[in-house]
């Protein structure tokens, strides 16, 4: 088996999301002999779709079993015993995957027909152990060109060295626009955090630091569906805690795998951005009932791990003057930060009318 595509699904029976995703994967050119022009004439790369229902309460698993029955040998329907979030569902897929390459997709997204063929052709031709592409941002089910988002940059590609690893630590980009050699995953025992959102924020950098050669197809081949009703767009205190936990797990993994000292400056920034800055502002913007005690917990966490994070050169460059001013105020007093932030947003809301 050349490729295993792992797709977690949760509550996807309605609105045609599951169907659109699955149909895009079943229609991949990789398995029907429609060559992209770079592989041997007549050669067909076989692939499987590991469709994992994350203990949905609707008919998601029933629909996946129907796909399995209709496409024996191509679709394998799996189900987690309890809801484990995407990380747990992906780990179940990994445990059952037989492909030489592993690809991932989110259950409400879809792929261009030749996405996986082009990624594999690139990987086989170059000897890379991870291959990526660009993506479209779309708001409806379509194969038309959406808003194209460039992902990884070409100066991150090739045989990886410390400079490229530093760039990948700062900007690993999404895992769903990549394929990985299974041998690398097995060698380094790579998995995903379970039971939390933002699992990619931990796994993505660690997986890239474990690879030796990264290549990219400079085409938008992945369609990222931006549905405002999706749970990924809803901010809660628990999701903020999940983001913080993802940051903690990233540091733990880097310590365990020997990356901590080599990429300390990059890790400090990645942690400060993920654990602290993104959480601080999304919490204040998106959570309805905010607590000073949460702001205190957030402050203690960043100071415990990286007390000098505000001196980090990437931090100084990435965030604007107001963001850094607000962070400094929070470091002095969570209460003063809270009062000032509320007054500032109220003032701006008043004069925006």
N→C terminal distance: 60 Å
Give the radius of gyration.
Answer: 21 Å
Number of helices: 13
Low-pLDDT runs of 5+ residues are: 35-42
Mean pLDDT over the residues: 93
Structural class: alpha/beta
CATH architecture of the largest domain: Alpha-Beta Complex
Order of helices and strands: EHEHEHEEHEEEHEHHEHHHHHH
Largest sheet: 10 strands, mixed
Portion of residues in helices? 40-55%
CATH class descriptor of the largest domain: Alpha Beta
Principal-axis shape equals globular
CATH superfamily label of the largest domain: Spore Coat Polysaccharide Biosynthesis Protein SpsA, Chain A
Describe what this molecule looks like in 3D.
This protein is an alpha/beta fold. The chain has two domains: 3-230, Spore Coat Polysaccharide Biosynthesis Protein SpsA, Chain A (Alpha-Beta Complex); 235-352, no CATH class. It contains 13 helices and ten strands. The protein has helices spanning 17-26, 60-70, 85-96, 115-126, 162-170, 182-187, 199-210, 237-256, 264-286, 292-305, 313-318, 321-332, 334-352, and strands at residues 3-9, 47-53, 75-79, 101-104, 110-111, 130-138, 147-149, 158-159, 178-181, 213-225. Strands 1, 2, 3, 4, 5, 6, 7, 8, 9 and 10 form a ten-stranded mixed β-sheet that branches. α5 runs antiparallel to α7. The longest helix has 23 residues, at 264-286. The relative contact order is 0.10. Mean pLDDT is 93; it is low at 35-42.
Features:
single chain; about 15% strand; 13 helices; Spore Coat Polysaccharide Biosynthesis Protein SpsA, Chain A; about 45% helix; 2 domains; alpha/beta; about 350 residues
């Amino acid at each position: 088996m050349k490729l295993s595509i792992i797709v977690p699904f949760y509550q996807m029976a309605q609105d045609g999301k599951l169907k659109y995703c699955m149909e895009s994967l079943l229609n991949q050119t990789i398995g029907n002999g429609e060559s992209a022009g770079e592989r041997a004439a007549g050669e067909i790369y076989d692939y499987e779709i590991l469709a994992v229902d994350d203990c949905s309460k609707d008919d998601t698993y029933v629909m996946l079993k129907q796909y399995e029955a209709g496409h024996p040998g191509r679709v394998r329907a799996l189900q987690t015993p309890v809801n484990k979030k995407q990380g747990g569902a992906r780990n179940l897929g990994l445990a059952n995957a037989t492909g030489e390459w592993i690809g991932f997709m989110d259950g409400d997204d879809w792929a261009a027909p030749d996405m996986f063929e082009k990624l594999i052709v690139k990987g086989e031709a170059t000897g890379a152990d991870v291959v990526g592409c660009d993506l479209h941002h779309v708001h409806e089910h379509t194969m038309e060109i959406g808003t194209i988002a460039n992902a990884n940059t070409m100066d991150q590609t090739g045989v990886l060295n410390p400079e490229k690893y530093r760039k990948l630590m700062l900007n690993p980009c999404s895992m769903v626009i990549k394929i990985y050699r299974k041998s690398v995953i097995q060698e380094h025992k790579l998995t995903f955090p379970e039971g939390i959102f933002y699992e990619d924020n931990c796994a993505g950098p660690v997986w890239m630091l474990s690879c030796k050669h990264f290549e990219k197809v400079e085409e938008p081949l992945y369609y990222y569906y931006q549905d405002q009703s999706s749970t990924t767009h809803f901010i809660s205190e628990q999701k903020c805690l999940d983001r913080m936990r993802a940051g903690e797990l990233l540091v733990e993994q880097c310590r365990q795998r020997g990356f901590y000292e080599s990429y300390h400056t990059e890790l400090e920034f990645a942690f400060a951005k993920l654990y602290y800055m993104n959480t601080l502002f999304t919490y204040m913007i998106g959570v309805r009932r905010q607590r000073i005690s949460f702001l205190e917990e957030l402050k203690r966490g960043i100071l415990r791990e990286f007390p000098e994070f505000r001196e980090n050169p990437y931090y100084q460059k990435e965030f604007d003057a107001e963001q850094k001013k607000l962070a400094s105020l929070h470091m002095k007093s969570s209460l003063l930060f809270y009062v000032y932030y509320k007054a500032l947003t109220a003032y701006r809301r008043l004069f925006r009318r």
